[in-house]
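Colleagues,

For the teaching module next term, I've prepared a clean inverse folding example: a structure given as C-alpha cells, and then the sequence designed for it. I'd like students to try predicting residues themselves before seeing the answer, so please don't circulate the second half yet.
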C-alpha cells in the first residue's frame, strides 16, 4: 500500500454524524417511490448504502477505485442490500448511461473532479425531467479568503468558491435550487482533519528513518494545520437541485 493510501485508509468513511447531513439533504426532496439513484464518485459507498435505506430505492455507485467499490459491495452484502445496489467501475468523464436513467443523482465530494459547471451540464441528461441533483462540495465560508489559503486550496479544488457563487451558476445549467445548507464549522475537523492528525502521528513512529514517508506525513500535517488555523474560512455545502425543463 502506498504511504498516501495508508495515511488516508478509512478516513473518508462517513460517520453517523456525517450521514446526518446526507439524511438532512435527502429529506429536502419530495417523496419519490423507489427512486433510481446514481451516486457519482461513491468511494466505499457509506452514502450509497444510506441513500438506499432512506429511499427504499435502488442505487448505482460509480467510481474508478476498484478496491473502494469492492468494499461497497462487501458492506452492501453485509447489510442485505446487494440486490438494490450495483457498482460501476467507470470514470465520470466517460459516463454512458442512457438519458433520463435516474430520479436522483447524488455527488458528495466528487463533482469538483469534473468541475461544477461541466458536471451540472453532463449530469443533466441522466436525470429524468424534474428529477434531482444533490451536490456536497467544498466552499469558502466567507468571501476573500487570505492568499495563503486561496493558493493552497486552488491546487486541490480549483473551482472552490462561496455558496452564493455556486448558487448563481445553478440556473444557468438547467436546474433550480430547492435548498442549500452548510454543515457546522467544526464538522471537517471532527470528521477528517482531527483523525488525520492522529493517523499521521502514529505513522511517524512506524516510518522513523524513511525520509520519503516522513515528507509525505509532513505534507499532510501541514494541510491539517492550515485547516486548523483557518477553519472559519472554508467548509462544505450541500446544494439540493431540481432539473428544470
Ligand atoms: C472525496 S471521495 C468521496 C467519496 C464519497 N462520495 C463520499 O462522500 O464518501 C472522491 C471519490 O471520487 C472518486 N473519483 C476520482 N476521480 C474519479 C473519476 N474520474 N470518476 C469517478 N470517480 C472518481 C475517488 O476514487 C473517490 O472515491
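(Answer key — instructors only)
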Amino acid at each position: 500500500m502506498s504511504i498516501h493510501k495508508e495515511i488516508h485508509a478509512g478516513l473518508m468513511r462517513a460517520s453517523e454524524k456525517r450521514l446526518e447531513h446526507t439524511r438532512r439533504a435527502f429529506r429536502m426532496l419530495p417523496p419519490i417511490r423507489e427512486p433510481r439513484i446514481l451516486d457519482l464518485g461513491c468511494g466505499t459507498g457509506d452514502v450509497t448504502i444510506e441513500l438506499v435505506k432512506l429511499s427504499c430505492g435502488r442505487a448505482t455507485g460509480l467510481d474508478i477505485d476498484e478496491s473502494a467499490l469492492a468494499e461497497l459491495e462487501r458492506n452492501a452484502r453485509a447489510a442485505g442490500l446487494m440486490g438494490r445496489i450495483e457498482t460501476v467501475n467507470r470514470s465520470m468523464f466517460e459516463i454512458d448511461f442512457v438519458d433520463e436513467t435516474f430520479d436522483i443523482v447524488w455527488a458528495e465530494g466528487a463533482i469538483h473532479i469534473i468541475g461544477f459547471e461541466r458536471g451540472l451540464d453532463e449530469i443533466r441528461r441522466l436525470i429524468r425531467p424534474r428529477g434531482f441533483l444533490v451536490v456536497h462540495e467544498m466552499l469558502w465560508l466567507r468571501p476573500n479568503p487570505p492568499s495563503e489559503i486561496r493558493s493552497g486550496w486552488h491546487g486541490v479544488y480549483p473551482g472552490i468558491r462561496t455558496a452564493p457563487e455556486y448558487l448563481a451558476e445553478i440556473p444557468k445549467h438547467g436546474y433550480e435550487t430547492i435548498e442549500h445548507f452548510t454543515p457546522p464549522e467544526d464538522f471537517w475537523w471532527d470528521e477528517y482533519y482531527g483523525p488525520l492528525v492522529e493517523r499521521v502521528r502514529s505513522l511517524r513512529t512506524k516510518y522513523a528513518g524513511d525520509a520519503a514517508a516522513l515528507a509525505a506525513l509532513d505534507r499532510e500535517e501541514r494541510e491539517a494545520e492550515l485547516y486548523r488555523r483557518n477553519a472559519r474560512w472554508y467548509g462544505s455545502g450541500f446544494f439540493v437541485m431540481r432539473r428544470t425543463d
